[in-house]
Task: structure prediction
Amino acid sequence: MEFAINHICAPKFSVEEFFAMARRLGSTGVEIRNDIPDVMTSVAPEAAKAAATAAGVEILSINALYPFNDWSGDLPERAIRMADYARDCGAKALVLCPLNDGTPVSEVDLVEALRNLASILRARGITGLVEPLGFPVSSLRRKGDAVAAIKAAGGEDVFRLMHDTFHHHLAGETEFFPEWTGLVHISGVTDPGVAVEDMLDGHRVLVDGGDRLGNLPQIRALLAAGYDGPFSFEPFAEEVHALSDPEAALAESIAFVREGAMAEV
Result:
């Protein structure tokens, strides 16, 4: 298995510290962000690229353009700015998250947004990773709908799916799209008191034996179906962000996932 590390695992680390930690953990793939932490506005893209090169890691993606499916206001400008940054820092992809406030977005608008994004991404050699969000209020919950929209937009050459184990579980999805999957985000929920429909990003911790999301079965299914890309850790819980030794916690979770996922493949 190939693991990647998302900067949200250690948001207090500088890019240099974060990249070095990922490399020590045996990962050559990393993801940077424009929120937690906001690398885009604090580190020049050329500096991020130089730091990645020095550490021997590859920037897999920037998280995330939101809401990518509402092509209005300043979204086109932000899309161009993020795609430029991705190109200049050497990132392979830009993560695309849909509107998530209870407002519906029509299929027509979704397809139009993808068409507009496709031209921006193609011009810069960047892949768009469409990440359906499984929350009940999300305007795009399921990967099957995302694939249909990508095809309708003629974007098969430039878009792939982000399979997120948290959102896959929240959406109640059963279908996997390994041939469409460009990257997988993994995180766990261990709180026994929260109902699935009430799970939020703040519940997402590193994957361990108390996981309620079925990470191991999802990972086994993806591997068995032919997915051979990275599995990237993306915990949002404050308790993870506050860890004094995130590297040790990640090493433990990596070992747990590797042993559990490979046991039945």
User: Anything to note?
Assistant: DSSP finds nine helices and eight strands in the chain. The longest helix spans residues 107-124.
